[in-house]
Amino acid sequence: MKRFLVPTLLLFVASAAFGQRETQTPNSNMKADPPALGIHWARGAAHPGQARPSRSPNMTYHNGPIMKNVYTQAIFWGTSWPSYSGDEITGIDTFYSGVGGTEYGRTVDEFTSTSQSNGSGSVTYGGHFVDNSAASGGQNTGTIGAEVCKVIGTSAVANGYYPVYTDLPRGGAQYCAWHSNATCNGVNVKIGFFWKMDGDAGCNPQSTVSGQTEGLQAAANVSGHELSEMRNDPLGNAWYDSSGSENSDKCAWYFGTSSLTFSNGSKWKVQGNCSNWAYNNSAGYANSSGQRGCLDGH
Predict the structure, then answer these.
(1) Which pTM value belongs to this model?
(2) What is the pLDDT of residue 283?
(3) Strand, helix or coil at 39?
């Protein structure tokens, strides 16, 4: 089937399939696949990585790399995208084009690595691609990695993040999205997976921002979640807390304000990210366990 690549300017899975670190446990057919990280669980889904009031909420460093400066290109994968007339593709373009340089984006800059100090990072957007072949693989990081490598080919860059938006409904899966990594032509890149969340109450942020469909609102909120976690814990060995939760996991489904304004003037309802500084100084807003320390930059 012909594939459309359109650059612009600008599980079913049980919770037992994911470990305490909120990673995917590979099955016998995917031994070489990297784990799924930072799983954005749907509202009300039971999972092992929730913030626990009995444990320290502070994030700790595990010696891995971070992604301070990011180059992003979105991939829309599925047979329905070429004829799609809604707002999700253009809306996601607007989201990634505006998130760089915002106070929301800077909520991840507190966390450093052995090779990168603190200070403002950047998110640069290189537009999107559309692949009209049939989408699959929400429970399989290898499948999503292969799709990314097929689409981006030799244009893979070491600081690249390639989120894949499928036209597949979530169905019985208990999560909305995840992030991981793949190797394309010898280059390790970061990837993300997203269900199509139109009409999905479990992934709905209940945004009141006008002019956006519910599906776009859901996609934008979980996009912020996975982007933030990917930057602080791209390989699963950088920043997370004693329960295995990454910075956005700890503030999932809790919002500091009804909308954030991005650098291009667009507005979004997006969950905040956990800050050690904010928690230690009794700042920020509380998460599901009543622990303060969530920041969204507003």
Answers:
(1) 0.88
(2) 93
(3) strand
